[in-house]
Structure formats: structure tokens, C-alpha cells
Specification:
- The protein has helices at residues 2-23, 27-73.
- The termini are far apart.
- The radius of gyration is 32 Å and the shape is rod-shaped.
- The chain contains two helices and no strands.
- Helix content is 65%, strand content 0%.
- The chain is mainly alpha-helical.
């Protein structure tokens, strides 16, 4: 059904315009046929613009899913997961080292 609206409907309208020009090769037939051809091209252009708009929505959905994956797993879907830390408690290698107090500028 999508192909019918996207491709065959505009083609049928353009062909109808060409047929109108062929049936009445005078000024009226040429003007009418040209208008029908323009209508067919307009239908085609509207389909193209609609497809561009929908593809932007798809890109946004893919980005949202990737961000949700990052929030859940801590890395992006196309990246390797980070190496797991070794088992056991984590300890500071320098337990006596404390953070220096902020320096005063005088």
C-alpha cells in the first residue's frame, strides 16, 4: 500500500497529464495537462518531505534508546563494556594521605 501512494499515485497523475496533452494538443489541453502533471509532482514532493520528517523521528528514537542503555549499563551500545573491577574490597592504596585543606590567598 505504501508503494502505491509513494510511487504509483504520482506516476499515474503525471501519466494522466501527458495523456491529456496528447488527446488535446491545443492550448487548453497543454495548460490542463501541465497542471495535472504539476499536481502529480506535488504529490511526489509531499511524500518525499513526509519521509524526511519521519526519518528524523526515527533517528531521535534511536538516540533515546541509546541514552537509556547508557543510563542502565554505563556504556554506549556500540562500545565494549568496561572491564570489571577485581573481586574483593576496594581500599585506598595510601590511607594516611588526606586531601590538603584549601589554600588561603592573602
Amino acid at each position: 500500500m505504501k508503494q502505491v501512494v509513494r510511487v504509483w499515485l504520482p506516476v499515474a497523475i503525471v501519466v494522466l497529464g501527458i495523456v491529456l496533452i496528447a488527446i488535446r494538443p491545443n492550448e487548453d489541453g497543454l495548460e490542463g495537462g501541465t497542471m495535472v502533471i504539476a499536481a502529480g509532482l506535488s504529490v511526489w514532493l509531499l511524500n518525499v518531505l513526509y519521509r524526511l520528517g519521519v526519518s528524523g523521528d526515527r533517528d531521535r528514537d534511536v538516540e533515546d534508546r541509546a541514552r537509556a542503555f547508557f543510563d542502565e549499563h554505563g556504556h554506549w551500545p556500540d562500545e565494549e563494556p568496561p572491564a570489571a573491577p577485581p573481586p574483593g574490597p576496594r581500599t585506598d592504596p595510601h590511607p594516611r594521605r588526606a586531601a590538603a585543606p584549601p589554600r588561603r590567598r592573602g
